[in-house]
């Protein structure tokens, strides 16, 4: 292995410390405590773990955490009514509805009910449009965390060839917009892209967000490229359950210049950026200066 390992766990800890320091100053100087409301519908085990972590890390940063756990058969009307209450609550600066939602609920309708100023996931159509037009937006947490790691590693990304494999609204599309905003030449590739290995081999920055375990092989990676692996896939190996990314780590790390591991890469940055977005939302709501280095 020759690649530098980009340590998302350590990076996320630094972000959380920056958030905690800023929150402490906000309390002391303005008597304000940022608040994050997280809504979980149903009992998906992975979602329960993520929501617990979000609540714990929110409190550890000195912010207020409001958890709303609803039954799996909650009606759309009841969920929308809860969002309306959170939109109107001045103690709540950020609202997040944990995804995926149970099948009977329309995720687009639910997300677009959130006040865009409190949409700390950056999934509301207004924030999608603001990001796409290069305006100040709430930015989705996983792409924001990936961008922070890339900026930290490279300094400027200007002029680099970036390939994003995956076209989801949550990761692939906003990641491409952010890289374009940093003046990369961006290609969005996907499962139907012709000669996907050759497209990937042209990338100085390769972002894998395709949701297929270890699909991207070492011989798809340009020597010296930076590989950001957004995939989190649980697979069975030798009778044990393990997490792997969308990149075949060992073969890619032998070729890449830098690579994020799974676990311990992009994943921890997702929650750290959620905390940063909650702080940013609170600052914007109260007309205070935004935290430096924690926004796109
Ligand atoms: N409303 C949202 N729903 C979902 C999002 C999101 O950003 N907003 N993202 C994912 C889940 N997610 C946060 O919600 C998330 C996923 C993974 C991690 C993480 O730290 N992963 C660790 C491994 C954890 C493990 O052992 O299982 C890692 O990669 O090191 C944090 C948050 C879907 N839903």
TrEMBL record:
Listed EC numbers: 1.5.1.5, 3.5.4.9
Example of a GO cellular component annotation carried by this entry: cytosol
Domain of life: Bacteria
Domain (Tetrahydrofolate dehydrogenase/cyclohydrolase NAD(P)-binding) ranges: 140-284
InterPro entries: Aminoacid_DH-like_N_sf (IPR046346), NAD(P)-bd_dom_sf (IPR036291), THF_DH/CycHdrlase (IPR000672), THF_DH/CycHdrlase_cat_dom (IPR020630), THF_DH/CycHdrlase_CS (IPR020867), THF_DH/CycHdrlase_NAD-bd_dom (IPR020631)
Domain Tetrahydrofolate dehydrogenase/cyclohydrolase catalytic: 6-121
Swiss-Prot/TrEMBL GO biological process terms: L-histidine biosynthetic process; methionine biosynthetic process; purine nucleotide biosynthetic process; tetrahydrofolate interconversion
Name of the molecule in the record: Bifunctional protein FolD
Organism: Rhabdonatronobacter sediminivivens
